[in-house]
Every structure is written in C-alpha cells, then in structure tokens.
Amino acid sequence: NILSHTRKISLVTLTMPVYYTAPGLILPGKLVEVRDTTETWRGLVTGVNVDVQNNAGELTATQTLEIERHH
C-alpha cells in the first residue's frame, strides 16, 4: 500500500536575522527553501522564536526557526 510508506522526518533549527525587507519575520505555516552548503531542500516552519538585543541603542533581531524536513 503506497499510503503506508513513510519517509524520514526531521526537525531542523535554523537561526537567521530578521530582515526589515523580504523575507522579514517568517511565521509558522510558511514553506521555506534552505540552500545548504551541499544541497537545497524545502520544509515547513513549525515554530519561531524571536530574540531582540539592544546594543548601545542599536537593536538587532534574530529569529530561530523550527523546520519540519522530509527526506
């Protein structure tokens, strides 16, 4: 039965800046394409955590994405 075939699923954590232009803040439910050093793959964002730092009045924001990847 083809419906019973399963593929490996992994959760990948990726940290990146929150850009003021595209892509900006990436929300859960979005499909993303990740260009790794050896391959390009797609996944579903299942969670996001945003961290904002104030360094002498200069704000920087990073987002940590949890991405569901099917192999």
Name the descriptors.
71 residues; mainly beta; 0% helix
Overview of the structural elements:
With 71 residues, the chain is mainly beta. Helices cover 0% and strands 61% of the residues. The protein has strands spanning 9-17, 31-35, 40-55, 58-70. The chain has a four-stranded antiparallel sheet with strand order 1-4-3-2, with no helix packed on it. A hairpin with a 4-residue loop joins strand 2 and strand 3 (40-55). The chain is elongated and about 55 Å long. The mean pLDDT is 92.
- Quaternary structure: single chain
What is the beta-strand fraction?
A: over 45%
Strands ordered across the widest β-sheet: 1-4-3-2
SSE run: EEEE
- What is the global morphology? elongated
Write the layout of secondary structure elements.
Elements: E1 9-17, E2 31-35, E3 40-55, E4 58-70
Antiparallel strand pairs: 1-4, 2-3, 3-4
